[in-house]
Structure formats: C-alpha cells, structure tokens
Amino acid sequence: MGDRTQALTGAAGGATTAGRPRSIRNVVLVGHSGSGKTTLVEALALTAGAVNRAGRVEDGATLSDYDEIERRRQRSVQLSVVPVEWGGYRINLLDTPGYADFVGELRAGLRAADAALFVVSAAQEADAVAGSSRAAWDECAAVGIPRAIVVTHLDTARTPFDEMTRICGEILGGDDPDAVLPLYLPVHGPAGADGHAPLTGLTGLLTGRVLDYSSGERREKPPDEDGRARLREARDRLIEGIIAESEDETLMDRYLGGAEIDLATLVGDLERAVARGAFHPVLTAAPAAEGARQGVGTVELLDLITGGLPTPPERPLPGVTPLHGARSPALNCDPEGPLLAEVVKTASDPYVGRMSLVRVFSGTLRPDDTVHVFGHGLTEPGRETRPFHESEVRVGALSSPFGAQQRPLTACVAGDLACVAKLGDAETGDTLSSTDLPLLMEPWTAPDPLLPLAVRAHGKADEDRLSQGLARLVAEDPTLRLEQNQDTRQVVLWCLGEAHQDVALDRLRSRYGVRVDAVPHKVALRETFAAPASGRGRHVKQSGGHGQYAICEIDVEPLSPGAGVEFVDKVVGGAVPRQFIPSVEKGVRAQAARGVAAGYPLVDIRVTLRDGKAHSVDSSDAAFQTAGALALREAASETRVRLLEPVAEVQVLVPDEYVGPVMSDLSGRRGRVVGTEQSGPGRTLIRAEVPELEIGRYAVDLRSLSHGTGRFDRTYVRHEPMPPRLAEHVREQQETSPAGV
Questions:
Q1: What is the pLDDT of residue 155?
Q2: Mean pLDDT of 173-200
C-alpha cells in the first residue's frame, strides 16, 4: 500500500520487477471524437521519456495515429498501442478512435485493457458532451471496466472545470453523482488576449498542495489564501465520496465525529472503489509547453495509473471452456500457468504480412512455440459473424508495438500485450492456448454492421483481386460483414457508418491494390399473383427436320406467405406423357425464378398442370420446359401481379428524450410501431416493423436524429405487398435497373 499511497498523492516510486504481471498496467483511452485522446497519449509518452518530442494531430506525425489513412483523414480510425515505463511499471496505453463508426476498435481495446481513462473535452458545449460521451461510457459500463475521467482542453474551455465535473456526475455517474469527483482542481494563469486563461497547475485535494507547472517543470507549493476555501469544500466532498464507498461501515461515523482519517486509509478505499467501478476520479491534463517535457497533470495521471488502477491479476479473466474433453484448469494471471491468450486485433503490414495484436491472460507466449488456435468468431446475439475454425500454428517473431515501430521481444508474460507476425489464419477474437490443453475463451460482442455498401470491381485487373482483397479486409475488421447476395447479384459490404465505409474502401485500394466502384444497394423484392389465373403455353416449331412440339395448360392460384412455389400434376389420359411432366415443372420453376412482371422471383403460388398435347416425334424435354415457362407468363398477363417487399423488425434503443422524434421518423418510413418498453434508467426500446426499402441508411439517420446516442438492430420478418403507387414506380425503375431496387 505504501507505493500506491505515494503514487496517488504525487510521489510515486519503488521500482518493481520488470516482466511481472503486477508491474504491468493496461489502460485504454476512451472518449468522443476530438476529445484529445491521441494528444494525451503523446503527452504521457513525452513525460515518461518514451519520446523526445510530442507530435500533434495537425502535423500528421502523432505517435499513435501513424497509419497513412489516419494521416490523410486527421482522425484515429484504429486501435493503437503505446507502451511507456514509469516508476518501474510498464504501462500499455491503448488509444481508441472516438468516432462511433469504429466502435469495434473500442471494444477490442476494452478487451485488452484492465482499466480505462475516459477523456472529455471542456472545449465542447455542455449538451454536446452529454450526447457524444454517453454512448462511449455505456460501452465501458457494459464490460464493467474501472474508469477514471480526464478533462482536457481547459486552456480553451467553453465549459468550466466545475461545470464539467457536475455534468460528468449527472450523465456518467448514474444514480450517484457523488461517484464522480475530482482528485485535483485546476489552477489557471492570467487570461490572454483571446480571453482564455492557460492551465498552469493543479491543487491536490488529498494533500492540499499546489503542483505548479508554470516554469515548465513541476514544483510543489502551498495554496494561496484565495484558494483555501474552495480547496476545503472540494476536499471534504471528495473524502465523503470515498468514505461512502468504503467497505468499513464505521469510517463515516468516525469522520462525522471529527476523527482525522489517515491518508493511507483513504487511498486504499479509493483504489478498491475504483477497481469495483463504484467511484470514478476526475483529473485534468494538458500537453507540455514548447520545450518542456511535462504537461500539466501528466505526472499525476501516470501516478494514478500505476498507483490507483487495477493490475492484471486483480481483474477477473474472461470465461474459458476446455476443448476436446480436456480438464478444466484453474487459471489466473500467472506467467507459469497454462497458456491462454487472445487475438484482439489483426492488421496487415506491407513488409511482414499479417500482424496479430495478442493479449496474454495466463502463461507466457514465446517465439517458435506451437500453439492451438481456435476461433468461434465474434458474435452478435442471434447472429454468427465468423465461422469457427481450429488449427495448430507455430508462433513467429514477437514484438512490442510502439506507433509504427516494432520492438523485438523474447517473450510476452501474462498480463502483457505483444504483436505476433504470421500467426497463420488467426483472426480477431481467436483463442491461443497450448496444444496440450486447448482452451476457448468467451467471445466479446461485436456490433452488427447495418449500413450496406454494394461494390463492383473497377476494371478487369481489380475483378481478379476483389475476392481476396475483401476476404482479407473482413478478416482484419470483425465489424465488417461480406455478403454475396444471390437475389440481387450484388457484392455487399456491411459497415457501421459512412466513415467506416470510406476507410474500408481506402484500405482496399491502398493496402490491397483493389479499386472498386460503389453502386446503389438493391433490396431483394418478390412477385406473387393477386388472384387465380390460367395460362396456355404453346411451343410448336417446324422448320425442316426434327421439330419442336409442346402444349401445356396450367392453373395458378396464390398461396399464403412463405409457401414458395408448389407444382401439382392433374393431367389425365396421358395428354402430357409422364416423362415430360418434370420438364413442365422445371420450365415453370425457371420462369418463376426469373419473374413474370418486373424481373423479381415469383413466390407463394400453386401451379396445377391440367392438360396438354404432345407429338410422338417432335416433343422433347426442352420443348416442354419452354411451354411451361410460356404458360406461366400467359397466366401472369391475365391477372394482377403484386410486388412484395421485405419487412424487418427494427428494435431501436434511445434515451427517453428522443422517443418522440424516433417514433415519428419510423412512421414516416412506412413503419408500424408495435411496442415500447423501458430498458434501463432513462432509455426506451422501440419495436417497429419497417420495410427494408426505407431503412437502407437508417444507421446514419438514427445517429443524426439521436445525436449519436441511439442504436438499433434489424431482423428480417417477411415479405408483404408493396403499396400500388410505389410498386408502379419500382416497375418503371426496373426498366433501367434489373434484379433489384
């Protein structure tokens, strides 16, 4: 506890044994886009001495945003790892994208980490913070990861620190706003010409000391008289918040009775409350000034990470299942235990090929080891997005990622992260274990991509490489789903949003050399008969030599939805020879598959063959197939053919304040709301049935409508008749756009 008390009060020390799980910290940075996560990683790396200068997002030269696509877009689009050393501890900083389209990268980072720094920007308006931060906070809460909150951009704040802390308490603290309280208060210098007061230091609430950075180096001094009252009030509230979460029920009585609670007790209770996810301390940080190595609050933040956040052995392991009748081992975060590791990210390197970022949970991973690889794929409830696969693979070179660099490793112990080169066909989410004790880890949930992107090869050379390029792209990113739609004959890449689409196409072109064109996505429609009808197919040709002769008469009647195409033989007296009846059926079914009105498959009908004629010489299988098709087309011309459109059940989860706008929007999409129910505090689940033609871009529209706080899933329910006016419009379009709409 001594080292932890020193760390949390600003005096970390005491080096630990390198390469041991308790000397490792895995921390993921989470927050909305533009909150300053990447800049904060740079500042922490500079303070820890891992780099000589801090990059800037504007330079395109940041440590974690090193990918060519990220430089072009000036935005993080993938998970990156920056390891630093601080006080004898190894800290793996995992920088995640803040944009909602890349939530799969966020979930991978949450899987690899043991704690999170939740970054919010004071440069945003208060209502913007509330909307953009809630979804990211919910992701953290869903996996129960301990969190501390870091407020950035106080130099250009639109929202003061006290107000930001209050907002975080209300929005992120749930039922207990006092579970979100600051450990330090910011100290500002005189306001500049732009009206903004620079951040020059911090006041520690537990120590009561001011940490002054105005000279470019961190110095301690006592607070001035003007700040003592504010310090006392904030300190009392922090102590009460810590004690309220204490497992010692007598502590509050002693404190209210006037007893002085020693610092070690407070720090111990704080650490345990943070580890349980019951308390979320708030800190602030800013990048270093030009020429300085320490940014304001970066030392305190590194001290909190090493002294106050959980170590790998203190976090429970994911669920594990033994394979092939193996015994169920007792696993913990022990380098000497059985090997248990997981691929949390897959990427392609232009020089070494596929690289796998692996988190080791138990045992030690070494180069040239042969490991068992098992992949059940990443799943969404009710959907399988990856088929399972199993193999034994020899481990290639191990390295520690550091931006674009790879630093060689001799081993990766339990609790640590490493990159593995050429790990066979291992994909994101696969479990690595020893060949003697094969194991399977419980998967994390991958978001279901719901925005379709239909693509086709730009040229002949691209067509040859398209399948392989798409397969590799999907293997790297589990939030992409590839569909070969047989009804519309389109190749569809399902994504999470428009930015996700753009990055996928960019990677396909720049990484795999495949150029594609985006084309309008088509929805698979159907046709059916609105009323019974009859048709006669006559195929008689005589042009010398062997001719063609086949006549058949059919009755067609509509069936209930989902019945498909039924064929009934009621021919009597041998009018159609028995050997040609299957030929008629084959012709009917082939024509039904091609459609009879607008080119969509014909379904939910019963076709009855009642009569016909044959010729002893000129009749043939091909002739009766043609006659069957002609008969079905004639029957269709005698009645009205309906167009059927697919209908999906949509479940939309939104904060209560957006229920009205979302329901109104669904009604405008020809949707039928079938029910609503409460789904947790302040959230409502809306269930509706909506035609799929109306929700092609709903992933984008819902995000705009709910300010990024809503999410939805969709499930096919049935095909049902399309409104006549819309059906007529689709038929007109069909003349220039076959096989879908």
A1: 83
A2: 82
Region 156-179: mean pLDDT is 82
Looking up tokens 């796998």 gives 356
Give me the pLDDT at residue 386, please: 55
pLDDT of 118 over the 90 cut: yes
Given a cut of 70, whether residue 252 has pLDDT beyond it is: yes
By DSSP bridging, strand 280-284 and strand 180-182 are parallel
Quote helix, strand, coil % in the chain, to nearest 5: 30, 30, 40
> What is the b/e burial string over 499-531, where b = at least 16 CB atoms within 10 angstroms of the residue's CB?
bbbbbbbebbeebbebbbeeeebbbbbbbbbee
Half-sphere exposure of 1 (CA within 13 A, CB side): 11
Backbone φ, ψ for residue 543 (5° rounding): -130, 35
Can you name the residues that pair with 412 across neighbouring β-strands?
365
Report the percentage of the chain scoring pLDDT > 90: 49
| Alpha carbon separation from 572 to 575, 621, 630, 632 (Å, rounded) | 7, 19, 21, 20
- Rounded CA separation 479/102 (Å): 8
Angle made by CA atoms 729, 731, 735, in degrees to the nearest 5: 115
pLDDT band at 537 (very low <50, low <70, confident <90, very high): very high
**Six-digit token pair at 675?**
């029910």
Are 639 and 597 within 8 A, CB to CB? no
Centre a 10 Å sphere on the Cβ of residue 700 and count the other Cβ atoms it contains.
17
| Lookup: tokens for 612 | 């016909």
What amino acid is encoded at 264 in this protein?
Answer: A
Q: Which of 690, 682, 740, 741 is nearest to 712 (CA)?
A: 690
Tokens 């009252």 -> residue: 229
Q: Which of 219-233, 426-440, 477-491, 727-741 has the lowest mean pLDDT?
A: 727-741
Contacts of 3 (CB under 8 A, 6+ apart): 12, 13, 14, 307
Report which residue type is found at 464. Answer: D
Please, which residues have CB within 8 angstroms of residue 189's CB and are 6 or more apart in sequence? 197, 198, 199, 200, 214
Is the pLDDT reported for residue 357 higher than 90? yes
Number of H helices, E strands in the chain: 17, 38
Type of residue at 735? E
- Pairing type for strands 605-614 and 565-569 reads parallel
Query: Phi, psi at residue 503, to the nearest 5°?
Result: -70, -40
Cα 96 to chain centroid distance, Å, stands at: 11
Instruction: Please return the burial class of 72, using the count of CB atoms within 10 Å of its CB with bins 0-12, 13-18 and 19+.
Output: exposed
Burial class of residue 1, CB neighbours in 10 A (0-12, 13-18, 19+): exposed
113 by Cβ neighbours in 10 Å (0-12 / 13-18 / 19+) ranks as buried
pLDDT of 61: 44
CA distance 737 to 730: 9
Backbone angles phi, psi at 639, to 5 degrees: -145, 175
Rounded to whole angstroms, the Cα distance separating 73 from 64 reads: 14
**Residue 733 pLDDT:** 73
Maximum Cα–Cα distance across the chain: 116
Rounded to 10°, the helix 460-476/498-510 angle is 120
Residue range 237-249: average pLDDT?
Answer: 87
Say how far apart CA 490 and CA 452 lie, in whole Å: 11
The secondary structure element, H or E, covering residue 420 is: strand 417-421
